[in-house]
Amino acid sequence: MRIEAELKAVVRDPAVVRAVLRERAPETVNVYCDVYYDTPDLQYSRGGREIRVRVVDGGQELPDLEVGAFFAGHARDHS
């Protein structure tokens, strides 16, 4: 099972941040395409849940497909 953690921050000078990160590790470019699903009456969203299908294209032959269901802050990864 893969665990994904994300850190978000406000960056005032993205070029400087990217340069510092490149000194620590090689840069990898991925293209994410997310599609979210809900019921017509938004039952999942109102309950703090979401269902997402994510395709990650990192330039390899076949892109990775992830299907995630998120329930009240707890992720269940089905990739």
Strand count, sense and closure of the main sheet? 4 strands, antiparallel
* Overall mean confidence score, pLDDT: 78
Cα gyration radius (Å): 16 Å
Going by helix content, strand content and strand pairing, the class is alpha+beta
Count of helix runs: 2
Q: In percent, how helical is the residue content?
A: 10-25%
Strand order of the largest sheet: 1-2-3-4
Order of helices and strands: HEHEEE
Strand content: 35-45%
- Tell me, what's the shape? extended
The total beta strand count reads 4
Task: Report on the architecture of this protein.
The chain is an alpha+beta fold and 79 residues long. The chain has a domain at 29-77. It is 19% helix and 35% strand. It is built from 2 helices and 4 strands, in the order αβαβββ. The chain is extended and about 45 Å long. The termini are close together.
